[in-house]
Amino acid sequence: MNAVRADALIEESRRAARPHTPARTDIWPPRERYGLSRLELSAVRPSSADDVLGRLVDRLMAIADATWALHRGGVDAPVAELELLAAGAGTMRLLGAAMGGDLQHFMAERADAVARQDWDTNARLTAGCDDHRLVALYGPLHTWSNKGDGFGFSAAVGVRDDKADAFARRVEGTIFSAADPVGRATGGQPFELVHVPAYVITDLVGCGGEANTFPKHFAYFMPEDGRVPDRDKTMTVVFRNVYTQQFREVSAPVAAAVCEGWTDLDADRVERALLTWLRGHDISHFLTEGGAVPDHLGGWPGFVRGTLQETFADVVGFLLAGTPSTTEVADLTVDDLGQAFMGEVLRYFRRGWGWFPDSCAAQLELAYLVDAGWLHVELPAGGPPVLQWEAKSLHEGLRELGELLVLALLRGDVGAKDCLRAYCVEPRPAWLAQFEAGLLDATAHVPDGLYYTFLP
Fold this sequence. Notes:
Blueprint: H1 3-14, E1 36-40, H2 52-73, H3 78-99, H4 101-115, H5 119-128, E2 134-142, E3 151-160, H6 162-177, H7 179-187, E4 192-193, E5 198-209, E6 219-222, E7 235-239, H8 240-258, H9 267-284, E8 287-288, H10 302-321, H11 324-330, H12 334-350, H13 357-371, E9 376-378, E10 386-388, H14 391-410, H15 414-421, H16 430-442, E11 449-453
Parallel strand pairs: 1-11, 5-7
Antiparallel strand pairs: 2-3, 3-5, 4-8, 6-7, 9-10
Helix pairs in contact: 1-3, 2-3, 3-4, 4-5, 6-9, 6-11, 8-9, 8-12, 9-10, 9-12, 10-13, 10-14, 12-13, 12-14, 14-15
């Protein structure tokens, strides 16, 4: 490399993908302690000592860790950054060669983009590759908005879970078809799907950089989470092992602590319920009653906008997943989906409603269903709160909430928007604050999230 080119790259590296503000660690509501549950990632990795893929994944994670450490500390080390860029690009190229097929071509193109710090092209190519045997996220990645500018240098590698991925392929066709009856049930008009994101079910085998800090994601949406607001071709990558363990270790125990008559589902049924609902959620972000998805929330604070968009996807996604045609193909009952929904809503709500739009969405869903009489809360003195729920009532309550969301987000009805917004701001109802305090106390023994280990 000539001196002029090297100097240009060094100068460019000083401006490259660095948080605009120092990254924060106070991204959970202030508490005296947090609990974490361990997830062993090597359990889904080949056990062979000469596993080339595993060694390359470990190397890419280490390079991401080093890059993130420089960015996080604000260290001005352009030569080191340049060397890390080259090392990351080279490792990605080797990963592609180890996999072969279309992945080799795409990973080589992405390696070139990484070497020249073209993160937009890197993100688009990540979403554009149709070979999903391995999904390697690498570069600035949106994890949590409270951390700096929301894009920290990260790496995450998932290996496709063939059984779960085949299940997703079977069930998504019925979810697409359900757009018609669910649209009619919530607004009188069939929904139209304006875009179909790819839905890739993987097992996480490596995580590095900012993505490996807390709390952690179980899914990413590319290229949007790679800093590219381009929806021509998108991909939702789900880490099945993270998602299911998170439900088993956090969501289910939280729900069991307050939900009357809670009984745990078997692991396979939980997995199918979660993956079906999440696909419904995923698709719901692209539903409309005609033409492009409208924006009737212009001028509203981003937090409230995000909350209502996530609420729409949660609720309509549940209704899509809960149609008889979908539950038949997924071999699920409405009770199964209801348990998945209740566990996840309570997990998100427990995380702090005012800190994340998806947690505020959980508050909106919970509070609306209680206010409308579809769920019932008891707040006994000196004891934990009790949440009474029944699957059929939950489904009907969510259909009613879906009507309100269609009016607000797809038709711009002022009364509906004002009603929904009231659930996102202070003052909160006294019962809700009391329920939250009781929930936190009753679940003090339950972990708040996961941490990963990598045994040889």
